[in-house]
């Protein structure tokens, strides 16, 4: 009986669209743009507000984005500006909402603050993004290559990386 009362007292989580709208009202400086596509919500975040927003999303009741699922880089191409994206895929184990945060970076400034201060799991994701794209995560505790040898030249998932690699790693 007591368990039935507890479950009856639980309030259903707000829809993600309402959470994002409330966030935009409360902290408009944290959000450059909101994109809805194919049932997914993406928030474009200025890099200087990224960590503040991540902490808020993780610790604020009602948001509860307590799981960082992935961080990945995107090279939109040398002709595009901003050239790079860093995407943070968040999940709430409370409401089962999914949310993507996106930081846009120009080619001449590929720095973004580390999210390891919010989620420890960001460590390896950021190292992989650094290794493959050359994105620098300021404040990262151990930013070094994770998949390629330390003496590897370049970042192989950049669109301007030669298909056959640089010497001495090229395939002849």
TrEMBL record:
Its EC number is 7.1.1.-. It is found in: Cell membrane. GO terms for molecular function: NADH dehydrogenase (quinone) (non-electrogenic) activity; NADH dehydrogenase (ubiquinone) activity; quinone binding. PROSITE patterns: COMPLEX1_30K. It comes from the Bacteria. Pfam families: Complex1_30kDa. It is a peripheral membrane protein. NDH-1 is composed of 14 different subunits. Subunits NuoB, C, D, E, F, and G constitute the peripheral sector of the complex. Belongs to the complex I 30 kDa subunit family. NDH-1 shuttles electrons from NADH, via FMN and iron-sulfur (Fe-S) centers, to quinones in the respiratory chain. The immediate electron acceptor for the enzyme in this species is believed to be ubiquinone. Couples the redox reaction to proton translocation (for every two electrons transferred, four hydrogen ions are translocated across the cytoplasmic membrane), and thus conserves the redox energy in a proton gradient. This is NADH-quinone oxidoreductase subunit C. It comes from Pyrinomonas methylaliphatogenes. The gene is nuoC.
